[in-house]
Amino acid sequence: MSRMAAFTAALTLLTNCAAPDTTQGTGKLSDMFATPDWAKFSNSKPTAQRAITPDDLVSADGRCAGTPDVVTAQATPEGGNGAETRNDAQASGLPVVQGGIALAMTECQVVQRTGFPDRVDIGAEGTTRITTVTVTHGSSPGLYRFRSGRLVSIERVDVPAPAKPAKSTKAKKSQAAPIRGTQQ
Predict the structure, then answer these.
(1) What Rg, from alpha-carbon coordinates, does the chain have?
(2) Which of 1-5, 48-52, 102-106, 163-167 reaches the highest mean pLDDT?
(3) Which residues pair with 120 in a beta bridge?
(4) pTM more than 0.90
(5) Dist CA 91 CA 114 (whole Å)
(6) CA distances from 65 to 12, 54, 56, 91, 95 (A)
(7) Which of 3, 25, 55, 105 could form a disulfide with 109 if both were Cys (CB 3.0 to 4.6 A apart)?
(8) How far apart are CA 184 and CA 181, in angstroms?
(9) Mean of the pLDDT values across residues 48-71?
(10) Of 117, 109, 68, 126, which Cα lies nearest the Cα of 89?
(11) Distance between CA atoms of 127 and 52, rounded to whole angstroms?
């Protein structure tokens, strides 16, 4: 009988756990299988995005339109001081932002995350601005396509392999031991 009593107690416990909560209202069994509010489809429209300003657009040389050119003074090998434009992630004049890249970002937001682009193509389809930015370095290389200043597609690009260090061509001298002949 003890096995039957244990089985009955376990069955009663499981039945009570699966029973609907009758203290919360209707107490219908169908409420137990209802989809929670957080999992229901929402047919709401996406939130409105702010308008694109000229400061959000990249110029043909890869810099954001609202930022000044960044020039650094470096000493030349001859000893004079020469001004040289930087060609790195900071050349856009904007601080590099760590983070991902998402569709609908502005041109300058993408350039902030990828660094200075290798190539920028700006065109138009009617009155719509079409921009293509190519980046082959950094953590997010790719071909970024924009329409009206917003990112609409990202494509993979072939990144050149890093240059291998040249091997040393020093002549290796043979350390062969001299052969000794036997004397008789």
Answers:
(1) 34
(2) 102-106
(3) 133
(4) no
(5) 12
(6) 72, 6, 7, 13, 15
(7) 105
(8) 10
(9) 81
(10) 117
(11) 14
CA 108 – CA 59 distance, rounded (Å): 10
Tokens of 173: 């001298």
102: its two tokens: 């998402």
Alpha-carbon torsion (149, 150, 152, 155), positive or negative = positive
Give CB contacts under 8 A, 24+ apart, made by 8-12: none
Sign of CA dihedral 142, 143, 148, 151: negative
> What does the alpha-carbon distance between residue 101 and residue 150 come to, in Å, rounded to a whole number?
12
Q: Rounded CA gap, 89 and 156, in Å?
A: 19
Give the DSSP per-residue string, 19-71. Answer: S--GGGS---GGGGGSPPGGGS---PPPPPPPPP-GGGSB-TTSSBTTSPPPE
* Inter-residue contact 130 to 103 (CB < 8 Å): no
What's the chain's length in residues? 184
Q: Strand, coil or helix: what is 5?
A: helix
Residue with tokens 């089985």: 7
Q: Which residue has the higher pLDDT, 118 or 41?
A: 118
